[in-house]
Design goal:
elongated, 7-stranded parallel β-sheet, binds ligand NPW, 14% strand, 37% helix, binds adenosine-5'-diphosphate, Rossmann fold, binds potassium ion
Length: 500
């Protein structure tokens, strides 16, 4: 799915109105029906709803939703940001006029927002935030930032319409006043800012509601940002041949583990064995081999006589892809052997953890990273590779430069992991959860993505497919064990490719 910018969405809006049999009021009604339907399906009618309504079309959505939900039987209280109707957008004014007189205003004579009323709010009432959407510009003017601070101090759950009020659609959200939503019902596309660590937390759960913007416009729109959805994945996944034999599905080599770090090798191998590749060999210190062989007898081993990576595996040409770094350590002889590996093999590599740190410390080694590889830094490792960034915009720029220079894919891990291709396109993951923020989850990703590369997917396919299925495994594990109890080993058994 494409991620369009706020201004592109506005254009899509205008294009749809111009080229399809729908006017802006009807488009707003369609959006509002989608929002109201979500509320009906998810919120009990005994819960009161407090609508905070701004002056623009986001407010217009809020008023239309209040009307629809009032007719559906909800108790709706509407608070307007202004009592001056001439300040409202045309669509907002239209929907104000259509509001049934029985919907309660907090101050019927003024139709004005009154902060005092917050103290009267029942603790289980839900706030529908329709103060500001994609039209926010510059720093917030009062009274909005004060209202947002007040709302954020309340115990009540907040559902934001399109965007948490105050959030800008792309960049520049650090340190801003933004509504802290429990759920954001966003129209047609996720907005980039929702997926970035700067302010993404303010969205709570993101639900994307299609509103039928022109397909023609969307197809032609040019963007470098994409959202990894089930449909994208369906286009990547390959069928397994009926007459297949193990030789045609590739051989993954995992170079991981050092003294006392055999767990990383076990996690990495277990994940690679779920990828569909024909063979998995793990190169690890011979004294660390026992747990691997006991837990995953399907994996073969290539044993290093040292207690860290210090010898190249034999017959490197036999392998289709190499994963390196998990639990590797940074012993001087490991650095030397990694250098030798980079100079001896042109097979695509998945480079993670200490192998990334070695690349960060030894800049001259970067030129030997095989084209078509995948680097999987978490933000700390990324900083070591590219230096500090002042904001998310600069971070993305630095990642793009790294991907272009190495002619490789960069996976920046975290919530909504970003997969950056050498041409600059960035794909944001839609699966995964905070239960995955535990030791070893990255080792599982490295093993899985290496296996996919070996299996025959190219680097961007393996990266996108890998992060999506890895996140899905996390979501399944969270259903089974809960966010707190789930751990990285649980991910392995949930790594299934049953995409519908
Ligand atoms: N295509 C779609 O997806 C569809 C989108 N739709 C909906 O339209 C929404 C976008 O509506 P929009 O363009 O009217 O902007 P919106 O967010 O209401 O903000 C404008 C208001 O905010 C104010 N304001 C701005 N900056 C401010 C500041 N710093 N501090 C304080 N105030 C500030 C500004 O005031 P002004 O600057 O004009 O005085 C104006 O009053 C979108 O999010 C979605 O909900 C659907 O209805 C249908 C299809
Ligand atoms: N809050 C989160 N939401 C979704 N995924 C997360 C979150 N935190 C971590 N993850 C995922 O878990 C993995 C953690 O990797 P990493 O930090 O390398 O762990 P480790 O080094 O312990 O193996 C990454 O794939 C990352 O995307
Ligand atoms: K909003």
């Amino acid at each position: 799915m494409k991620i369009l910018t706020g201004s592109q969405i506005k254009e899509a809006d205008q294009y749809t109105i111009k080229n399809e049999p729908i006017d802006s009021i009807a488009l707003m009604e369609r959006a509002s029906n989608a929002i109201a339907q979500w509320v009906c399906e998810n919120i009990d009618k005994t819960i009161s709803l407090l609508f905070l309504v701004g002056k623009g079309n986001n407010g217009g959505d809020g008023l239309a939703v209040a009307r629809i939900l009032f007719h559906a039987g909800y108790d709706c209280l509407v608070c307007m940001l202004t009592d001056k109707e001439d300040e409202l957008s045309e669509e907002c004014r239209y929907n104000l006029e259509r509001l049934p007189k029985y919907v309660r205003f907090d101050s019927p004579s003024l139709r004005r927002f009154s902060i005092v009323r917050f103290s009267d709010l029942e603790p289980d009432a839900i706030i529908i935030d329709a103060l500001l959407g994609s039209g926010v510009k510059g720093d917030l003017r009062e009274p909005l930032s004060e209202i947002i601070d007040q709302v954020n101090g309340l115990p009540n759950k907040v559902i934001s319409v399109d965007l948490p009020s105050g959030m800008k659609t792309e960049f520049g959200n650090a340190g801003q006043s933004i509504i802290k939503a429990g759920v954001t019902l966003t129209l047609e596309f996720p907005k980039l800012a929702m997926l970035l660590p700067e302010a993404g937390e303010y969205c709570g759960d993101i639900k994307i509601l299609p509103i039928g913007l022109s397909k023609d416009f969307i197809d032609k729109a040019i963007t470098e940002y994409h959202y990894i959805t089930n449909d994208l994945i369906k286009g990547i996944v390959r069928k397994r041949d009926k007459f297949a034999h193990k030789g045609i599905y590739g051989h993954a080599l995992l170079i991981c583990g050092s003294r006392g770090m055999s767990g990383a090798a076990v996690l990495c191998a277990g994940a690679a064995l779920r990828s569909g590749c024909g063979l998995v060999t793990v190169h690890l210190p011979q004294l660390e081999r026992f747990s691997l062989q006991a837990i995953y007898p399907s994996a073969m081993t290539s044993l290093d006589n040292d207690d860290c990576f210090s010898e190249l595996p034999e017959n490197l040409d036999n392998y289709s892809a190499i994963g390196i770094g998990c639990g590797l350590g940074k012993a001087p002889r490991t650095i030397k052997t990694f250098e030798l590996l980079l100079k001896s093999s042109t097979k695509p590599m998945v480079i993670d953890a200490d192998a990334l740190n070695i690349l960060a410390d030894n800049y001259e080694l970067r030129q030997f990273v095989p084209e078509g590889s995948i680097l999987t830094p978490h933000p700390g490792e990324l900083k070591r590779l590219v230096g500090e960034w002042k904001d998310e915009q600069e971070k993305i720029l630095l990642v793009r430069e790294l991907a272009a220079n190495l002619k490789s894919v960069i996976i920046v891990k975290g919530a909504h992991t970003m997969v950056c291709l050498p041409g600059g396109n960035c794909y944001f993951n839609s699966t995964g959860n905070s239960g995955m923020a535990k030791g070893g989850s990255g080792d599982v990703l490295t093993g899985y993505v290496t296996g996919l590369l070996a299996r025959g997917y190219n680097n961007w396919q393996a990266a996108i497919l890998g992060v999506y299925i890895h996140g899905l495994a996390g979501d399944r594990a969270s259903v089974r064990y809960g966010l707190e109890a789930m751990n990285s080993k649980d991910l392995i058994d949930e790594l299934t490719l049953d995409i519908k």
